[in-house]
Design brief:
The protein has 1 helix and 14 strands, in the order αββββββββββββββ. With 183 residues, it is mainly beta.
Length: 183
């Protein structure tokens, strides 16, 4: 999946289709991508289709470890990831299907309140998230915009189910099970 994602990015866009099966996504993938430590990074003109018979199972993150599962944060050449004003625009991205993204094996925030998001946006327009189930784990945001740099032009989230996104409600009382930032 990692090689396919990079290939699609290098071609200037396309669709990555995940069908029929369980795909284990773990923290090892964060070593290979360039923005915000995302496991899967999507750039302009890319789509991720998760079929109803497919599950992305997120695992082996340590308690208290930050997590950005799908990142739509474009990186400029030489960008070190510290200033989102240097991030490139990311346009025309679609994540859809009837599948599931399962965070039940992804650990929890612990007491550190680390940022943990299913999808991180920054300087995006024409983004669509539809038809998926996002469940389990401990997330500060289901869909997060990174410090108000999301353009918000035609960004849509609809037809999704969000289930049990707080694993440790006693320790983590300052975030909601579903928190969509709108700018």
């Amino acid at each position: 999946m990692q090689r396919a994602n990079i290939y699609i990015r290098e071609q200037g866009g396309g669709e990555l289709e995940l069908k029929n099966g369980i795909y284990l996504i773990n923290s090892e993938l964060t070593k290979y991508f360039y923005s915000w430590g995302g496991c899967i990074n999507l750039d302009s003109n890319m789509s991720l289709y998760i079929d109803k018979s497919a599950t992305l199972k997120v695992g082996n993150f340590k308690t208290g470890q930050s997590l950005s599962f799908i990142s739509l944060v474009g990186a400029q050449s030489g960008w070190d990831g510290t200033k989102n004003t240097d991030a490139a625009d990311v346009k025309n991205v679609k994540i859809y299907g009837g599948g599931t993204i399962d965070f039940t094996s992804a650990g929890d925030m612990g007491n550190t309140q680390s940022p943990r998001a299913a999808i991180s946006l920054c300087r995006n327009s024409n983004f669509e998230l539809s038809g998926l189930t996002i469940k389990g784990g401990d997330l500060s945001n289901a869909v997060a915009d990174m410090t108000s740099k999301t353009y918000g032009i035609k960004n849509r989230v609809y037809g999704c189910t969000f289930e049990d996104l707080v694993a440790n409600a006693t320790a983590n009382t300052d975030h909601s099970t579903l928190y969509l930032n709108a700018v």
